[in-house]
Amino acid sequence: MLQFELSQRLREAVLPEEDCAAAMATVQQEPFFKLPQYHADQYGSVREASSIGRIFTLANAWHDQIDAAVVIGRHETLEGMRAVIEARCDPFHNELDRAGRGSKPRMYFATTTSDNDSLAAITDRITKPTAAWGPQRFAVVAVIEGAESQEVIAMLKWFTERLAHLEKSTSETIQPFVAIIKSELVTLPASVTTMADHHFDIPAGIEGLYATFTPAGLLPMAMLGLNCIKLLEGGLDMAKQLASKLGEDNLACRMRSVQRWARQNDRTPITLSHQDSLARLATWCDSLWWSRRGSIAPTLVVPRDARQAATLVRADGFVQRVKANADRQDSVCLPMEPSSNSSGSVHERKVGQLRSLDSTLQAASRYSTDLTLPSIDMFPMGQWMQLAMTASAMDFGDSETGG
């Protein structure tokens, strides 16, 4: 079970939120909060015709039809999905051959902040297959919201043109498959709509960093074979926990109290991810707070040297530790010393380094939080994401404004 704990010093400093019940009642009406339950109800009643069912049908079909895909959209909207993929997929997924990828496509990402060289490199890389056999077709997934929609549409047209290619035996032009995922509030011209073979909607009131549980996040994850149902079940489990608990027992209120304390006391958070695979998800969680409030810039630290870390923590900062109790892969053992026959696991060695690092950070800041996952799996990550979104969306009537 996911845990979120405060150090003794921080518990003494942070005041409990007396209006937690009212804040939770309000946030439960937010579209993002209802989304895991909506998916569960719809998938349970109409199965293949549901949004999740259609996503699974398309993802499974594309496994046999495409070699590579590019997902395009705003950086904020793609970030949560990319964080889950980074946590769960082989870090060298795109370098594996088709068999090594389990017939899943290579996947690349382009955002409205991508520069000239990265866009050119993506098209060049996609069109160079990793095997002489298998499908030689590509897909473009475009996520279009109100903000920066014209930039995404321009990128969609650009990629569609450049990923088209001639079929060798017939000299026929083969177009890439295209899926458009758009906000319900966006109306696209017919010239754009007809470019896509498949269409999905992002519910009104959800965008940016809060869109991971919408088709914008679920379709790319399903294309890579990730268990989206478990992710949503984790989100639903956390939503039910938060709806039934108040005060200190409510993890969102606890997290929100820390965030409010940090803002009011000008404390700068330093986020320490114990596993590299969780670093991007930790950044996404920090970005939720930053984008909503615009008052605390997130800082992610994954240092290997305790002395280096000590210089990064100001006396008025505090540490947010993120870790999982189990790594994804089997233990890797390395020699303890170059000339030694004895060996120790990388995990044990890193735990020792992190304990030393924690002691250094604690001495420097004295305030800290610990968010612990039982494992790097979809269910606890779904819990974490729902918790982070809920905490960042809670309004306790202070002077903060949305970003």
From TrEMBL:
Its EC number is 5.3.1.9. Residues 332-351 are annotated as: Disordered. InterPro entries: SIS_dom_sf. SUPFAM superfamilies: SIS domain. It comes from the Bacteria. Keywords: Isomerase. One of its GO terms (molecular function) is carbohydrate derivative binding. GO terms for biological process: carbohydrate derivative metabolic process. This is Glucose-6-phosphate isomerase. The gene is pgi_1.
